[in-house]
Amino acid sequence: MNRHMSLPRVRLELGKTLLAYLPAALLFPVVLAPPLNHDVAAILDFTQRWIGGEALYSRLLIPDPPLIFVLNLLPAYVGKHTGLDAILALQLCVLFYGAVVWWLTVRLRRHSEEGPIERNFLDVAPVLVLVGAGYDFGQREHLMVLGALPYLFLATRRAQGAQDSYRYVVAILAAVAFAIKPYFVGIPALVELYLLFTLGWRSYVRDPVPWTMVVVWTIYLASLPVFFPDYLDVMLPLIFNYYVGGSTVWQTILVPRMGIALALLVPLLWVGYRGNNVLVKILSLAAVGAAVSALVQRKGWSYHIVPIELFGGVLAGTIAAHWLDMHASNLRKHSPSIAFGLSMLFVLFVISSGEAPWRELGYEKEAHQQTELKALLIQSALDARVLALSSGIWPIYPALNYAHSHQTLRALNIWVLQGVYRECLPDGRVYRDIGEMGWAERALFETVAEDFAADPPKVVVIDRIPLGIPWCGRQFNILEYFKRHPLFANTWSRYEFFAASNGLDLYERVQGSPDITAR
Questions:
Q1: Among residues 96, 124, 157, which one ends one of the domains?
Q2: With contact defined as beta carbons under 8 Å apart, do 35 and 363 qualify?
Q3: CA 180, CA 97: separation in Å to the nearest integer?
Q4: To 5 degrees, how large is the angle CA 338–CA 339–CA 342?
Q5: Residue 380 exposure: Cα atoms within 13 Å on the Cβ side
Q6: Could you give the CA distance from residue 308 to residue 321 in angstroms, rounded to a whole number?
Q7: Ramachandran angles phi, psi of 230, nearest 5°
Q8: Looking at the 3D structure of the chain, how many domains does it have?
Q9: Is 292 part of any domain?
Q10: What are the backbone angles phi and psi of residue 500, rounded to the nearest 5°?
Q11: CB neighbours (10 Å) of residue 463?
C-alpha cells in the first residue's frame, strides 16, 4: 500500500484484501469445535501411550506407518507436560502448520505474473485448504495436501526454469508430507515426470529439489529397521494378511462422494490441459495423483476423498480466476469481491460434500451417540483405564480423549478379527477353536485375556454388533468370544453391566475390586 494514503483509504483497501478470507473464517470455529476426527483422536491417543512407555508396533498394534506418530509427539508431549489439553495442542499445531504453508506460498509466487483476481484467490487458497477438510481436519490426507501446496507452487517456478531460496525448505516439507502414507508418493511422481519432460533431463538432474526429497525418503526408510523394526517384522505381515483390501476399484468409484468428486474433476482436467497456465497443469497432476491414491486404497472413506476435493477446489478457483483476468478485464477492479465469491463457492462445495458443520452443530445433542458415550465415560472412567472391544474407531474415539480415559487394547480395534473372520467358517461354527487359530488371532486372543487379567481396567466397552464380520448363522459375539479364555472369564466375574449406548454395552468393575488408576 502507498504510505501516503489516508487512514480511511488504508482501512478500505485492507478491508477489500481481507474480504476473500471471510468464507474461510466462517469455517474456523467449525474445524476447532468438537468432535475431533476419530482417526486423528486415535492416533493422538496411541502417541500418548507410546510416550507413556508402551512400545510402538511390539505392544501397540496399529497399521499406520510411524511418521504420523512422530509428528504427533509434539502435541502429545505438550499435553503430558503442560496444563494444555492434548487435543487443543494438536489443533494449534495444525493451525501453525497452515500459517507456515500460507507464508511459503505467498513467498514462492510471482505476483507480477498473476492477474488481480487470480492473485486475490491464490492468497486465500491455502487458508481454504486449511479449513476445507472440515471434520477431517488434522487427518493424514489433510496434512499431506497442506504440505504439498508450497511444493506445487515451487514446481510452477521450476517448470519455468527459475529457482527459489526456499526450495530446500519446501522440498523437505513436501517430502515429509508425502511420506506420511506410501500412497501419496504418486503425486510428486506425476509432477516430477512433467518437469522432466518440460525441462529435459540435463536441466532436471541439476535441480536439487527432487534429490532433496529422495534423500529425506531414503533416511526415513533407512530408519525403519533401526528405530521401528517391529513395523517391518510384525505389522507389515498383519497389514498384508488382514488389513489391506476392501472394495474393488469400481465399487470405490461408486461411493457417492467419491463419484461426485471424480465427476467434477474430469472437466476441470480437460479445461486445465487445454490452456497454458503452468500452475493449473501442476494442480491438475496433483488432483490426478490424489484420485489414484484414493482408488488404490479401495476403501472410499471420507478422508481418502478429501485431497481430490481440496486440490480440485483450488484448481477450479484458479481456472476461473485466471479466465476472468484474461477475458473480463473490466471486472479486475472488483477482484476482492470476485475472489470472495470464488472462496464462498469453495466453502459451499466442501460443506455440501463433507460432514462439517452438521456433525459439529449436532454434537452436543443428548441423543448423539458420541456425546452420550463421552458423558458415560466421564461419569465412570474419568482419567481411568478402559478396555474397548469394538470393530469401529468411532464413537470410541474421540470420546476416550475427551474423558481423558486411556484405552488398554493393544490394537486400534479388533481389526485382526475382522480380517480372520471376513468369511464364515466352512463347518458353520462362529468361532475357531483355540488350537485352530492362526498366529495373529491367537496373539490377539491371548494378549487381550492376559492384559485384562493382569491389570483390570475400570470400564469395559463391548460392541454388540461388530461391523466387518458377517452373519454366520448368528451374530459374532465379542464378549462370548473372549470369555472362552479362562483368564478373561475369571476376571470378567468382577464386572457388571451399567449402561448401553447405541450398540455399545458398558461394564464397570464392581465395588470392592482393587482400584487401578490410569497409568
A1: 96
A2: yes
A3: 15
A4: 90
A5: 27
A6: 20
A7: -70, -20
A8: 2
A9: no
A10: -130, 145
A11: 21
**CB-CB contact of 151 with 171 (8 Å):** yes
How many residues does this entry show for the chain? Answer: 519
CA–CA distance, 310 with 185 (Å, rounded to integer): 17
Residue range of the domain that includes 492: 369-509
CB–CB of 150/170 below 8 Å?
yes
**Greatest CA separation for the chain:** 87
Within 10 Å of residue 196's Cβ, how many Cβ atoms?
15
Is residue 206 included in any domain, yes or no?
A: no
- CA gap 268, 287 in Å, rounded: 10
Q: Report DSSP state, residue 137.
A: T
C-alpha cell at 441: 488371532
CA distance 488 to 449: 5
The CA dihedral of 375, 379, 384, 389, to the nearest 10 degrees, is -50
Q: Which residues contact 313 (CB under 8 A, 6 or more apart)?
A: 128, 129, 132, 346, 349, 350
The SS3 call for residue 60 is strand
**Distance, C-alpha 320 to centroid of its chain:** 29
Q: Does residue 18 sit within a domain?
A: no
Cis before 486? omega within 30: no
Per-residue pLDDT of the chain (519 residues; tens, 9 = 90+): 455 555 565 455 556 678 889 999 989 999 999 899 999 999 999 999 999 999 999 899 899 999 999 999 999 999 998 988 999 999 999 999 999 999 999 999 887 788 899 999 999 999 999 999 999 999 999 999 999 999 999 999 999 888 888 999 999 999 999 999 999 999 999 999 999 999 998 999 999 999 999 999 999 999 999 999 999 998 888 888 777 566 788 888 989 999 999 999 999 999 988 878 899 999 999 999 999 999 998 888 899 999 999 999 999 999 999 999 888 777 777 788 898 999 999 999 989 888 878 788 777 664 455 678 888 999 998 999 999 999 889 889 999 999 999 899 998 888 889 888 988 998 888 999 998 999 889 999 999 999 999 999 999 999 998 888 889 989 999 999 999 999 999 999 999 999 988 889 999 998 765 544 433
d(CA 243, CA 261) in angstroms, rounded, equals 26
Strands 459-463 and 504-509, by their bridges, are antiparallel
Does 44 map to a domain?
Answer: no
Give percent helix, percent strand, percent coil of the chain, each to the nearest 5: 65, 5, 30
Measured distance CA(489)–CA(482) in Å, rounded: 8
b or e along 477-510 (b: 16 or more beta carbons within 10 Å of the residue's beta carbon)?
bbeebbbebebbeebbeebeeebebeebbbbbbe
- The DSSP string of 487-511 is HHHHHHTTEEEEEEETTEEEEEEPB
Q: Cell numbers 490426478 label which residue? A: 288
Q: Rounded to whole angstroms, how far apart are CA atoms 412 and 87?
A: 18
